[in-house]
């Protein structure tokens, strides 16, 4: 009995030592530069006890592959529909640790100032990845520019492609482009549907510059903190999740992005 207790005590001590060692290590997190890395820098400022190593993503880098391969401990750049698609593509299971903010998708143009001015046969640049392409088509529908086939009612689950357009009165030409490249195409197309983070990086202000903006109400595209199932209970992940969903971070988002980024979870 005494020996068993000693073994249990030894195991508990080893576990505590491992936990302490993990807590002492910097938490490696991959994030888009704007607004995600900026928000994480603010977290570092308000919570010095949390040691974050922020790795800013560049074009062409898949942060979910980094996470799957153990190159980072978490990432912060995506929404749940995109994560679901990535899990299928990579054959991996990830864990959502926190739901933080919405970056409303917007329609932009350098050629017109109103969606009422959209010409016939206008070229529309949209993201070429499955989830954001679908999201762009739902936004075009919400703005009255196209109509999707019957049955496409739930943006989070009913993913649409250009083949699912039932009505296209202005004969819009849908041009699929890599999301980070779309802001650079603004001079070459009539309209561009741009993700909020890439719009901000390009100097656009979604709340002011977008001709049409995605609604934040019941929006399924909230950006999330993602980790692995193994790290889901890591104290560092839990602390970061708590900070990201705090009133202080929500206020930082409101003050700094003024409607272009919207906090959705405050605890």
UniProtKB/TrEMBL annotation:
Official protein name in the record: Lipoprotein
Pfam families, A to Z: Lipoprotein_9 (PF03180)
Highest taxon of source: Bacteria
Coiled coil: none
Subcellular location: Membrane
Membrane topology: Lipid-anchor
High-level lineage: Bacteria, Pseudomonadati, Pseudomonadota, Gammaproteobacteria, Enterobacterales
Species in which this protein is naturally found: Winslowiella iniecta
Entry's family note: Belongs to the nlpA lipoprotein family.
Signal peptide annotation: 1-23
SUPFAM superfamilies to which the protein is assigned, alphabetical: Periplasmic binding protein-like II (SSF53850)
CC terms in the record's Gene Ontology section: membrane
Family matches, as InterPro entries: Lipoprotein_NlpA
Keywords tagged on the record: Lipoprotein, Membrane, Palmitate, Signal
């Amino acid at each position: 009995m005494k020996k068993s207790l000693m073994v249990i005590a030894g195991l508990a001590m080893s576990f505590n030592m491992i936990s302490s060692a993990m807590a002492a290590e910097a938490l490696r997190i991959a994030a888009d530069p704007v607004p995600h890395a900026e928000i994480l820098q603010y977290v570092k400022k308000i919570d010095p006890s949390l040691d974050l190593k922020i790795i800013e993503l560049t074009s062409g880098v898949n942060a979910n592959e980094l996470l799957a391969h153990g190159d980072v401990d978490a990432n912060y750049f995506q929404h749940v529909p995109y994560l679901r698609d990535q899990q299928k593509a990579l054959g991996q299971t990830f864990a959502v640790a926190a739901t933080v903010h919405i970056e409303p998708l917007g329609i932009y143009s350098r050629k017109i100032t109103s969606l009422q001015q959209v010409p016939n046969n206008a070229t529309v640049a949209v993201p070429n990845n499955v989830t954001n392409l679908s999201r762009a088509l739902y936004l075009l529908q919400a703005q009255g520019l196209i109509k999707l086939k019957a049955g496409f009612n739930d943006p989070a689950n009913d993913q649409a492609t250009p083949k699912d357009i039932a009505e296209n009165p202005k004969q819009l030409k849908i041009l699929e482009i890599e999301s980070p490249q779309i802001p650079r195409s603004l001079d070459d197309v009539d309209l561009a549907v741009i993700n909020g983070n890439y719009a901000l990086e390009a100097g656009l202000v979604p709340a002011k510059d977008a001709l049409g903006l995605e609604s934040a109400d019941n929006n399924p595209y909230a950006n999330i903190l993602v980790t692995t199932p193994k790290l889901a209970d890591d104290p560092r992940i839990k602390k970061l999740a708590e900070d990201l969903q705090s009133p202080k971070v929500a206020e930082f988002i409101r003050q700094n992005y003024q409607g272009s980024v919207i906090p959705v979870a405050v605890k």
